[in-house]
Amino acid sequence: MLTEFDLIEKFFTQTKQRADVLLGVGDDAALLQPPAGQILVATTDTLITGVHFPEDTDPVDIGYKTLAVNLSDLAAMGAEPAWVMLALTLPQADIAWLTKFRRGFFELIDQYNLQLVGGDITRGSLLVITVEAFGFVSQEKALRRSGARVDDRIYVTGTLGDAGLALELMKDKSPTESRLNRPTPRISTGLALRDIASSCIDISDGLAADLTHILKASNVGARINVEDLPLSPALKKHRSPEEAWKLALSAGDDYELCFTVPPEHEAKLIAALKNIDAGYTHIGNIEAQAGLRLMRHDGTLFALKNNGFRHF
Ligand code: ADP
Ligand code: MG
Question: Which of 15, 44, 244, 253 has the fewest CB atoms within 10 Å of its CB?
Fold first, then answer.
């Protein structure tokens, strides 16, 4: 039988070390040195089997997604990711499962030059994975939800609704399955937006719900044109326009960024995002009147009943 210490050594020890990690895995806590003049950005997210992913999800994808959703939060703050902690609750020490989980998790660790600096392993009846991710940003450049102003333009990265389509088509092996299981954290977009965006959020619960967080924090309202929502060819093929807009607005799990840009920063935005392949689309504008208005191009309202995922 492998003890928890054997598991840590076998699966969660990294040879590559960052210079800003004075002490990583192996003591009671890690000793970490943020760069001079920068502040620490900290986030955590938990994934629970049966709630955040179906029980039969490939463990490689679980490892990837559990880190990706945390990096997405750092991206939404304009932070440069650096350190990660991992708390695992496992029903049993399943070597095959852990080997696959590790592969997905370390794929992103390596891609972004991160270091796993600590964690915890416990036995429990349900598979639960909690990741904490830490990054850096200079204080005045952090992208908050509260900075949107009247007349700012509203943008989203990538395409929306693909993760929602994958959930609906699950049994038929959706063409957008990788968008659900392996969301791409928009780190380089977040970094590029630091001197440009007035507010930013990552879309985890659905655009309508997440944009509403920006509106409330900024004390403004917005109008978006549903016909301008960026939709993938796969989503357009499998769903009517109305159904596709509904998924794009309320399905969640896309992990794209939604951000606002003052009109005078438009040229800077185009230059800054020119070489970033995530792409971005103008979907509407910030207005003084509170609330979110969903419009068609002909000026009629698009009605949305349920505007996002809620745990409670
Ligand atoms: P303690 O009992 O003092 O809290 P642990 O025995 O839980 O310490 O952990 C020993 C070391 O291993 C610590 O540095 C901890 O951060 C690290 N660790 C434990 N679990 C993991 C994990 N899943 N991934 C990475 N590091 C881990
Ligand atoms: Mg201890």
Answer: 15
Ligand 1 atom index nearest CA of 88: 23
| Ligand closest in space to the Cα of 93 | 1
Q: What is the pTM of this model?
A: 0.94
- Name the residue of 2, 25, 66, 97 to mutate for ligand 1: max ligand atoms within 8 A of Cβ: 25
pLDDT digits (tens, 9 = 90+) for 130-183: 999 999 999 999 999 999 999 999 999 999 999 999 989 876 678 889 999 999
Residue with token string 């689309």: 281
Q: Please state, in angstroms and rounded to a whole number, the distance separating the CA atoms of residues 227 and 233.
A: 14
Whether 12 is in the pocket of ligand 1, judged by its Cβ within 6 Å, is yes
Q: Residue 310's pLDDT band (boundaries 50, 70, 90)? A: low
Rounded Cα–Cα distance for residues 118 and 130 (Å): 12
Q: For residues 305 and 245, what is the distance between their CA atoms, to the nearest angstrom?
A: 12
Ligand 2 centroid, distance to 27 Cα (angstroms): 7
